[in-house]
Amino acid sequence: MVNLYEDGVYLINGNDIITDPHNASILLKSKLNDNIPTRNEAAKNTIG
């Protein structure tokens, strides 16, 4: 099944999906221990 999200999502380690754009920075910090890539770094090796 495929889900489309209007605001986009963050996929962490191929397993965890963060869909809330308002709390994304807080959730990313908790998952990645302040090692958050920039948008350009995150876009590397993706389809889009």
3D structure, described in words:
It is a single chain. With 48 residues, this protein is of the alpha+beta class. It has one domain (10-43). It contains 2 helices and 2 strands. It has helices at residues 24-32, 39-43; strands at 10-12, 16-18. A two-stranded antiparallel ribbon has the order 1-2. β1 and β2 form a beta hairpin. The longest helix has 9 residues, at 24-32. It starts with 9 loop residues before the first strand and ends in a 5-residue tail after the last helix.
The proportion of strand residues reads 5-15%
Shape: globular
Give the termini separation.
19 Å
Series of secondary-structure elements, N-terminal to C-terminal: EEHH
Summarize the main sheet. 2 strands, antiparallel
Characteristic terms for this protein:
48 residues; alpha+beta; two-stranded antiparallel ribbon
Q: In summary, what is this structure?
A:
With 48 residues, the protein is an alpha+beta fold. It is built from two helices and two strands; from the N terminus they run ββαα. The chain has a two-stranded antiparallel sheet.
Task: Furnish the topology, listing elements before pairings.
Blueprint: E1 10-12, E2 16-18, H1 24-32, H2 39-43
Antiparallel strand pairs: 1-2
